[in-house]
Write a structure and sequence with these properties.
By secondary structure, the protein is of the alpha/beta class. It has 2 domains: 36-128 and 255-323, Bordetella uptake gene, domain 1 (D-Maltodextrin-Binding Protein, domain 2); 132-228, D-Maltodextrin-Binding Protein, domain 2 (3-Layer(aba) Sandwich). 46% of the residues lie in helices and 19% in strands. It has helices at residues 3-30, 47-63, 78-85, 99-108, 144-153, 168-180, 192-201, 211-220, 267-281, 284-292, 302-323; strands spanning 36-40, 67-71, 93-98, 120-130, 132-136, 159-162, 185-188, 206-209, 223-228, 254-262, 296-297. The strands form 2 sheets. It has a 6-stranded mixed sheet with strand order 2-1-3-10-4-11, with helices on both faces. Strands 7-6-8-5-9 form a 5-stranded mixed sheet. Helix 6 links the parallel strand 6 (159-162) and strand 7. The radius of gyration is 22 Å and the shape is globular. The chain starts with a helix and ends in a 6-residue tail after the last helix.
């Protein structure tokens, strides 16, 4: 090949890249020009569904286009997340997914059909649900340190409830065992509503739960919140210490939800969405409504979220392997 021909090919490639970048910029300027579909891989009315809709309602006002929510639950959030991974990368299909299908499920399931690190672009954080360590009022403990002492003195005798093997509540209990060196007994339920009476009665006196799951028990005095596993106190539980404040510095654990887009979605569109969602999450009204749901609004850049995904996958892989939890399929 002659030098002249090589130069022509090089110029053609550069011109193509310039045109592509120009098209992406133009698309971002006019985006969105139609409604945006958001797949939520969890049931309608669930905690993740509610807070995602709160954020979307606010963002739609500034974007000028509505978000059409499509609930596609199944397999711990994997079904809807998989469908979103196959959507066109044009900014008109997003997925509001969580720490299960994006992080822990990569170890819990043999084959998700998608790779969270390779098949998606991070858009924005939606919110976090800090794990609240709760104990039945019938359990003779009032503080986190007392719980740890009691658990160590009664190996395998202290039951904690969850909505099933591999759920965030189950994994949070397994994580707690590893951090404090205690042996607990996991009791899975089909529905979290079935757990509440047992928590209050004291037959399953322990829980590692999102606040909405145990709020009724706390309000009735049937259970006590010992600590929240986050770096700062929850706005909804201002008098409950963090695990670090309660003497357990290395137990930081929250369920989280973030918005992702199919891999290849133009960066100008990702950046525009991040800007609009960030503005929505900083809105005091949105934050107040999140607090009502036991959630905390949290903003982050796409780059920060990409790093978070990788670190969370590694964290839960280690915890699941140490706990000896077998893959679900």
């Amino acid at each position: 090949m002659t030098l002249q021909r090589k130069n022509r090919i090089g110029l053609a490639i550069i011109a193509g890249l310039v045109l592509a970048l120009g098209a992406s910029a133009a698309d971002a300027q006019t985006y969105p020009s139609k409604p945006i579909q958001v797949i939520i891989p969890f049931a309608g009315g669930s905690a993740s569904d509610v807070v995602t809709r709160i954020m979307l309602d606010r963002a739609a006002k500034s974007l000028g286009q509505p978000f059409i929510v499509d609930n596609r639950p199944g397999a711990g959030g994997n079904v809807g997340t998989l469908q979103a991974s196959k959507a066109a990368p044009d900014g008109y299909t997003l997925v509001g997914t969580g720490s299960g299908p994006v992080a822990s499920n990569t170890t819990l399931y043999k084959d998700l059909g998608y790779d969270p690190e390779k098949d998606f672009e991070a858009v924005t954080m939606i919110g976090v649900f800090p794990i609240v360590i709760v104990a039945s009022a019938k359990l003779p403990v009032k503080t986190l340190s007392e719980l740890i002492t009691y658990a160590k003195a009664h190996p395998n005798q202290l039951n904690y409830g969850s909505v099933g093997i591999g759920s965030s509540q189950h994994l949070s209990g397994a994580y707690f065992e590893q951090v404090v060196g205690a042996k607990l007994t996991h009791v899975p339920y089909r529905n979290i509503a079935q757990y509440t009476p047992d928590l209050i009665a004291g037959s399953v006196p322990l829980g590692f739960q999102w606040l909405p799951n145990v709020l009724a028990a706390l309000n009735s005095g049937g259970a006590n919140a010992l600590a929240v596993a986050s770096k700062t106190r929850m706005k909804a539980l201002p008098n409950v210490p963090t695990t670090a404040e309660a003497g357990l510095a290395n137990y930081d654990n929250s369920g989280w939800f973030m918005m992702l887009a199919p891999k290849g979605t133009p960066k100008p569109i990702i950046d525009k969405l991040n800007k609009e969602f960030t503005a929505a999450l900083l809105d005091p009204t949105v934050q107040a409504r999140f607090t009502e749901q036991g959630a905390e609004a949290l903003t982050a850049t796409p780059e920060e979220l990409t790093k978070l995904i990788s670190s969370e996958i590694a964290k839960w892989r280690d915890i699941i392997h140490k706990a000896g939890i077998d893959p679900i399929q």
